[in-house]
Design goal:
- With 184 residues, this protein is α/β, with parallel strands linked by helices.
- It has one domain: Rossmann fold.
- It has 3 helices and 8 strands, in the order βαβαββαββββ.
- Strands 3-2-4-5-6 form a 5-stranded parallel beta sheet, with helices on both faces. A 3-stranded antiparallel beta sheet has the order 1-8-7.
- The longest helix has 19 residues.
- The protein starts with a strand and ends with a strand.
- The relative contact order is 0.22.
């Protein structure tokens, strides 16, 4: 399947500002629970974004926030639909989530199925007081009743398009770009 770049929707500075704003919004909504706040990023890329939000929170509040990463591969409802070999990554939750206010972080929110899988995975590790969702980009087209509490940018897309987020942690530069499938 051929893909063509359609438009860059966020550059490095826009991503930086969005994650800083999200950190402020998280603090505003959770000021009573800041001591029990943890961030859990969905692998891969959501974990990098979670670390960046945590750094912003730490700069603002001058206190450390625990950050973990969760792999949702085995919790996906489409795992049996793939013909390619599934690669499972490790989950890193070096803290107990029971009773915590968990901010689940993903880079792009689309159908909601990845978030549902992430919530199922989290429940295997404990019972949080609450789960909130932060995403860098919300592109719409939900198939499940899931909405983000914190959004960097809403980017309307068609089903023929997808949004690719690239991050410096992966050896590139920070950007978010829409790609479109070309007819064959």
């Amino acid at each position: 399947m051929e893909m063509r770049e359609k438009a860059q929707v966020m550059n490095a500075e826009e991503i930086r500002r969005s994650l800083q704003r999200i950190a402020h919004e998280i603090l505003e909504q959770n000021h009573k629970h800041i001591g029990d706040l943890v961030l859990v990023g969905v692998k891969s890329r959501g974990d990098f974004i979670a670390h960046r939000i945590a750094e912003n929170l730490e700069r603002i509040e001058n206190s450390e926030v625990d950050v973990g990463a969760i792999d949702v591969t085995l919790y996906r409802d489409d795992i049996n639909l793939h013909e390619t070999q599934i690669q499972v990554n490790s989950t890193e939750l070096p803290f107990n989530i029971t009773g915590k206010w968990v901010i689940l972080v993903d880079e792009v929110l689309y159908t909601g199925r990845t978030v549902r899988a992430a919530m199922d995975a989290l429940m295997d590790f404990g019972r949080p007081a609450a789960i909130q969702l932060a995403t860098l980009i919300d592109r719409g087209h939900r198939e499940l009743p899931i909405a983000a509490d914190y959004v960097g940018k809403n980017v309307p897309t068609s089903h023929r398009e997808f949004v690719r987020v690239q991050l410096a942690e992966e050896g590139g530069i920070d950007s978010a770009t829409i790609y479109e499938r070309e007819d064959e």
